[in-house]
Specification:
two-stranded antiparallel sheet, mainly alpha
């Protein structure tokens, strides 16, 4: 569940970006070096250029406002990293909670389906059972879609056939549910 979830991946990317921003605080201190050269010669005499005609000029620039701003930028970058870490932790907790709710919704659907089947009278001609079965298929499909979104795997590779399933050969159930049967 934790590998393929898109929300979790976004939170991890945000954490990496904020960690890089801490490093970028110190890149503002790197001085800028400019190397300029100038040629002092008339256009008609460009064919005879000597070393005395070329002048080099080197400038090293320190950005003084960034030097005074470093503690503040560093603190804000570190606080952003802390926020991103806590957001990632909360996202993981939220995913576990959503998984728990999804499992409970499946259990409630199973209990509801069993109770509805038990309430069908014996002299039913199969119409009510068919309606109940169709409703069951729809609810299981919605719950399975919720699991697919939660797991971050729309290919349903995390699904397994349940040997105790009596709903037909085509129904697959999440592996989490198998251990509860």
């Amino acid at each position: 569940m934790m590998e393929g979830n898109l929300d979790l991946k976004r939170s991890e990317q945000a954490l990496r970006a904020t960690e890089r921003s801490v490093i970028s605080v110190y890149t503002q201190v790197i001085p800028g070096v400019n190397l300029d050269w100038m040629l002092t010669k008339e256009l008609s005499e460009l064919t005879r250029v000597t070393a005395q005609d070329v002048e080099y000029n080197t400038n090293i620039l320190f950005n003084m406002p960034s030097l005074t701003q470093i503690p503040f930028d560093y603190y804000s970058a570190k606080s952003a990293v802390y926020t991103a870490r806590k957001t990632l932790e909360m996202k993981k907790r939220e995913l576990v909670s959503r998984l728990y709710r999804q499992v409970l919704s499946y259990q409630n659907a199973c209990i509801s389906h069993k109770n509805r089947l038990d309430a069908v009278p014996y002299d039913d001609d199969g119409v009510q059972k068919k309606l109940i079965q169709d409703d069951w298929e729809k609810r299981v499909s919605e719950i399975s879609q919720g699991f697919a979104v939660l797991m971050g795997n729309m290919d349903a590779q995390w699904l397994k056939r349940c040997p105790g399933w009596t709903g037909g050969n085509t129904r697959v159930l999440p592996a989490i549910w198998i251990c509860w049967w």
